[in-house]
Amino acid sequence: MYLYEKLISILLLSLPGIMSETTENSQLTALKNQDEQCGSYCFGILKPFIEKVSSLQPRKEKAKKFREMESLDNYCLIKEDFIDQIIHLIAFSNNIENKWMVELKNKDFQILNQTVKISSLEKRLTEKENEMKAIENKLIVDLKNKDSEISNLKSQEKENSAIIGKLRKNLTDKENEINNLSSCIGKETGIHEIKLPGSSAFNVSCDTCLAGSGWTVIQRRQDGSVDFNRTMRDYRKGFGALDGEFFIGLDKLHLLTKSRKHELYIYMKKFNDESRYARYSHFFIKGEEDSFKIKSLGNYTGDAGDAMADNLYKKFTTIDEDHDNWFTGNCADFYAAGWWFHNCGNSRLNGKYQTADLAAKVRGINWISWTLDSLKFVQMMIRPVE
Ligand SMILES: [Ca+2]
């Protein structure tokens, strides 16, 4: 019985893949021992069987093969899985490719459209460039022409400036000439001919002694040699002698004061030879149609007082033409003089010439803002104001 069990175990141990290598070695050792124990009898019976079993295949090699098979299976499985993935990837790739192909076609179509548009735009651009070039060329030509015109104009302007300068100089010379001709400016004391626009030439008395040069004397009283109690006609035309007593005449006075702005200077002297003056900055006499009214006196300066203040805007009154503001009488008749009477006012330089012994006693040549005495000497003068 014991032996039989041993034999079974040996058989089992000899089966491949059941025992480990260590166990196998120990069993072979044990079998060898059993052989020794069993002796030649039992061993001799079982030995061929055992050897047959053992010879079928070495167990070590089988185990190796078995592991290899297992690895191969695993490998196959991995391969299969990998192949599946590859197939899936190829399918996905095909899908993507198809989508890309569609997209590509669309893009191609779009590119074609864009190309057509670009071609059209390029054509228009070329046309526009040609137009611009043509305009530019025209502008260049125009500009050259304009430059030439400007150059010509500049030279013309230069010539014109020279001509204008010459004309201005001539004009100034003429103006000076006219000024000199129409006034006492630049003339010595004495009698000179002057000419005003719109009038024939006439002689005037010029004075450079009493208040500087350039004064035209319009009235002088010095000795009573001339009667000043005259009609309007005489006062219009003027009377007396230019080198003595005289009145220039209202017509000439109007022309002179109208032609240019004039100032008025009145020099006065008493019989005691005391002298004073009154000066008005803008003296202007209207024409016959306004009865030779004093339109302007300007500002008063001087040391004789402003005795003509009441005469501003008054018409000229004579013994035969009463324009004064004395409603019941005629100032010209009362003072025996023609003047710009008010009612009758404080100045009457055309009054009757009195002698020294009568000067303080009777009406005469008066400037009331200075003295009640009749004056010994009076000279009224005008001069153009620059
Ligand atoms: Ca009157």
From TrEMBL:
Coiled coil: 111-138
Extent of the signal sequence: 1-20
Alphabetical list of SMART domains matching this protein: FBG
UniProt key word Cell inner membrane: no
Keywords assigned: Coiled coil, Disulfide bond, Signal
GO cellular component, one term: extracellular space
Superkingdom classification of source: Eukaryota
A Pfam family recorded for this sequence: Fibrinogen_C
Annotated CDD domains: FReD
Domain Fibrinogen C-terminal: 175-386
PANTHER family per record: FI21813P1-RELATED, FIBRINOGEN/TENASCIN/ANGIOPOEITIN
The name this protein goes by in its record: Uncharacterized protein, isoform A
